[in-house]
Specification:
protein phosphatase, two-stranded parallel ribbon, LMW_PTPase, binds 4-nitrophenyl phosphate, single chain, protein-tyrosine-phosphatase, about 140 residues, Ptyr_pPase_sf, 4 strands, about 40% helix, two-stranded parallel sheet, mainly alpha, Tyr_phospatase_low_mol_wt, Rossmann fold
């Protein structure tokens, strides 16, 4: 699960997907394309909305996406088109590029919808992000 800062959207996506899979069989992680929040705990608003739905993301710490992740993961879900561009720029071949999916394509196929970045907004944005990611993760688990 990849976003820009790895403190708002992708930590929620990681926590939500982990809650829906057998984590002894499916390894789920998240990262940011940016470096600003490496080592940081998720944003307190993401922690709060997760807690509201019984998903604890307090143990997560920010990390930056690395080209090595293409080797370590089968599927790479990005939150928005700019994340996708940044990740695709690091891919070395078509097989790596094919691992990259826009997460809301899972519920709005072909519509190219971004998960809005809630960082500069209010709490309602985080609730909205949670609901979108929850629905998208329901689709993802059906295909695993
Ligand atoms: P995220 O949100 O990509 O969902 O984690 C952001 C968090 C921090 C920043 C940007 C987006 N920032 O510019 O620091």
């Amino acid at each position: 699960m990849v976003c820009l800062g790895n403190i708002c959207r992708s930590p929620l996506a990681e926590g939500i997907l982990k809650s829906k899979v057998d984590t002894s069989k499916v390894f789920v992680d998240s990262a940011g394309t940016g470096h600003w929040h490496v080592g940081d705990q998720p944003d307190k608003r993401s922690i709060a909305v997760g807690k509201k739905y019984n998903i604890d993301i307090t143990n997560q710490r920010g990390r930056q996406f690395s080209a090595r992740d293409f080797g370590n993961f089968d599927l790479i879900y990005v939150m928005d088109n700019s994340n996708r561009e940044n990740i695709l720029a690091l891919a070395e071949n078509d097989a790596q590029k094919e691992k990259v999916r826009l997460i809301l394509d899972e519920i709005f196929p072909g519509e190219n919808v971004d998960v809005p970045d809630p960082y500069f907004g209010g709490d309602a944005g985080f609730e909205n992000v949670f609901k979108m990611l929850d629905e998208a993760c329901n689709q993802i688990v059906k295909q695993l």
